[in-house]
UniProtKB/TrEMBL annotation, chain A:
Residues of the DUF1989 domain: 54-221
UniProt-listed NCBIfam families: urea_degr_2
Name this polypeptide is given: Urea carboxylase
Pfam families referenced in this protein's UniProt entry, alphabetically: DUF1989
High-level lineage: Bacteria, Bacillati, Actinomycetota, Actinomycetes, Propionibacteriales
InterPro entries reported for this sequence: DUF1989, UAAP1
Species assigned in the record: Nocardioides luteus
Length: 284, 263
């Protein structure tokens, strides 16, 4: 029977009643509002401190503006999530993730705990604090419509195999940003490794239940597209839900000289100095 | 193979040293904000080379050390870049000449070919996954697109705040991009012709001594009309130009009709 048979919508009042009757339902993927009501609040986090709680659908995207100092944790409950991520300085979004500097400045290609996500302006936008996955990627970016059409036969944004870039373009538009504002991204939970001849060895996922936690070093626009990694060798478009929680307490501050990670290397120390200098001058 | 260069638009070779900004200290000493050695040393071997493909030359220009350059390479034309002095990084960005929101994408280029290095045959892809240019000739083992561009800002991280006023590739990209309506949001991860950035087994990565030499070349066939931005890297704090910035030569050719590329 067609869905229309379940609805009585012949008048405005009936249509309103029909629409309202749909509220209060639960989906496997949805935002939780207020965030404190999240059924998946991490054990070590006070639910009352949550500012963002969401399970992102496979093949979809999310985006949020986060205050400086906010902690945000991405979790992969099934081992199949792939969180393609972009961060921007929310105050001046021309400052955004620069993947080349993020790999070059720390002299390290692979993301992990302690790795800064650097902008092209010599500052740290976010720092990876903890990482139980170890399988991330800063080489391959996200998928394009051309790639998904080749791999899966379709890439329609409304179809079963949307491309990461197309989702980023929509997420960016919701913050006044255009297609030119979608630079190369990083991805969490699905990794590659570079072999001696330069070829990519598929490293994949490290299984269900891993997470990465980051701290916002400046006010951030965060864009996340949850789609398969472009080098995922499986012929099917396979991706799992992604859990996101963010929180803020008096103890959650940006990185300061009192933190051990501030002095992890001379390069990162100067990056934090630049970040604090910017924040101080702006009165943050 | 010899190629006759019939060149109506050739610019003169830029002479060295480049003009520098200077001031006099109270004791009369001349001081410059340009690091000592930012122009190549007397006696540096220079090989100006030839186009890597046979055909009529339609543009032939030199890029002075530290300078920027841009040009449009029409679909089917081939751009030969000559590393005149050897191991001179040519930082490079590409755009669809008619719609610059479509631009070079390092991750798409690498993911499509399943390899982290650029070699002969590499298709240089856009952020839409489309082919902008194809590497049809390459005289060094591998080319870099991981290392990104130097900038005043990232220089402060890598070398210290005392280098803040050193020139950098992002400065060049901003200068040259502005001529085409491009700005900060249009600078993305770039290609570094003739620069060497190995990725080691544990993920260690960095700019190391180059594998190029005077006169080594790379040739790029445009698949669509492509705007090319070049920064002739002025970096004086790492080996991306042997600490001896030298010129680049940019030659655009209409390949002969019977020319068949390796790729």
């Amino acid at each position: 029977m067609a869905p229309v048979a379940d609805h009585s919508t012949d008048t405005v009042l009936n249509a309103r009643a029909d629409a309202r009757a749909q509220g209060g339902q639960v989906s496997d993927w949805m935002p939780y509002l207020p965030a404190s009501t999240s059924p998946f609040c991490p054990d070590d986090v006070d639910p009352e401190s949550l500012t963002w709680a969401e399970t992102v659908a496979p093949g979809s995207y999310t985006h949020k503006v986060l205050a400086r100092g906010t902690r945000f944790r991405l979790e992969d409950p099934t081992g199949e999530a792939c969180a393609h991520t972009l961060v921007y300085n929310a105050l001046e979004p021309t400052e955004r993730l620069n993947v080349a500097d993020t790999q070059k400045i720390p002299w390290q290609a692979y993301l992990g705990a302690g790795h800064p996500l650097l902008s092209g302006d010599g500052r740290v936008l976010a720092t990876i604090l903890t990482d139980t996955s170890g399988r991330h990627d800063a080489f391959c970016g996200t998928s394009t419509a051309a790639w998904n059409a080749l791999r899966y036969g379709t890439a329609l944004p409304e179809g079963p195999a949307p491309a990461g870039r197309d989702l980023f373009v929509k997420a960016a538009a919701k913050h006044g940003l255009g297609p030119a504002d979608v630079p190369p991204s990083v991805s969490f939970f699905q990794g590659v490794r570079v072999a001696e001849d330069g070829s990519f060895d598929w490293f994949g996922s490290s299984g269900a239940g891993t997470s990465v936690e980051l701290v916002a070093e400046l006010p951030l626009i965060v864009l996340i597209a949850n789609v398969p990694h472009p080098r995922d060798p499986r012929p099917e478009y396979i991706v799992g839900p992604l859990r996101v929680h963010a929180w803020r307490t008096p103890e959650t501050t940006p990185t300061t000289p009192a933190d051990e990670r501030f002095d992890a290397s001379p390069e990162v120390r100067r990056a934090y100095l630049n970040t604090l200098d910017y924040a101080e001058a702006r009165g943050l | 193979m010899t190629t006759t260069i019939d060149n109506p638009v050739m610019r003169p070779v830029t002479t060295i040293p480049v003009p520098v900004t200077t001031y006099l200290t109270p004791d009369g000493q001349l001081v410059s904000s340009v690091p000592v050695g930012a122009s190549y040393a007397d006696g540096s071997p220079l090989e100006w080379g030839d186009p890597l493909v046979p055909g009529a030359v339609v543009l032939d220009e030199q890029v002075a050390p530290r300078a920027s350059w841009s040009g449009v390479v029409r679909a089917g034309q081939v751009l030969t870049i000559v590393d005149v002095g050897g191991n001179q990084s040519g930082d490079c960005l590409l755009y669809n000449a008619h719609h610059t929101d479509e631009r070079y994408s390092a991750p798409d280029t690498l993911a499509w070919q399943d390899n982290a290095y650029i070699r002969t045959g590499t298709v240089l892809r856009s952020n839409l996954g489309r082919a902008l240019m194809t590497v049809v000739g390459n005289e060094i083992d591998r080319q870099d697109t991981i290392g990104g561009a130097c900038s005043r800002e990232s220089n402060t991280l890598r070398y210290g705040h005392h280098v803040m006023y050193h020139h950098g590739c992002r400065e060049n990209f901003l200068t040259e991009g502005a001529k085409h309506g491009l700005g900060m949001r249009d600078i993305v991860s770039n290609i570094n012709w003739f620069m060497n950035v190995p990725v080691e087994e544990d993920g260690a990565l960095g700019i190391v001594d180059g594998m190029s030499a005077p006169g080594k070349r790379v040739a790029l066939r445009a698949e669509i009309d492509t705007l090319v931005l070049i920064s002739n890297c002025p970096q004086m704090n790492n080996p991306c130009n042997d600490f001896n910035p030298t010129p680049l030569r940019m030659i655009v050719s209409e390949p002969d009709v019977d020319y068949e590329a390796d790729a």
